[in-house]
Prior knowledge:
mainly alpha
Amino acid sequence: MDSxxxxxxxxxxxEKLHLRxxxxxxxxxxxxxAYAYNWFTLxxxxxxxxxxxxxxxxxxxxxxxxxxxxxxxGQLLYWFVDATGLNPLYVIQAICISAYxxxxxxxxxxxxxxxxxxxxxxxPLLLGLTISMIRKDYLMVLTVLIVVSLLRREHPGPWRVIAxxxxxxxxxxxxxxxxxxxxxxxxxxxxxxxxxxxxxxxxAVLSALCxxxxxxxxxxxxQARGIVESWQRLE
Length: 235
């Protein structure tokens, strides 16, 4: 204790603390500037979206040319656009950006509760890559948050469990890759609690069947052409 209180040691400690603060400030500033730049870059895609870019077309897959995997969200979008006459690309933007903002708000609240550095969220490892916002990724992450929220109670009722399983299956219908990580989280939560353990086998069977149908109905060239023609009819 005496060695710490000596003036030379205190000076060294102060210098280290100042250096740490400077580095902390520099890193946070760089991340925030990079985050702002990503939003600026995304703006051009939002104002003038490319009609047939992969980011949008993966959300335009529908059932108009026959049943095909990943087509549920696109079919719902097709019906909505057919009824309202809105531009499907801007509807896709609204859906994806809303999902991203909900996740960002949720994470900010949780980081604040845990006293974490909020700017870590804007790093490329978490939510900093806004340039890839118009995709299905954040929709699936949002589904995981919904599932966790439904099952976070100590004793979730049967309707909450059923709703969580339904959301998980819906996410699988959006993209079957959800089966490998999102479904796993659902099954672990269900199995970890004695009062929900009995639902685990049902959730596993339904999820497996959903994944199998995605493997079987992978589509064809003719179906791809039919999907393109269905959107061209609306256009």
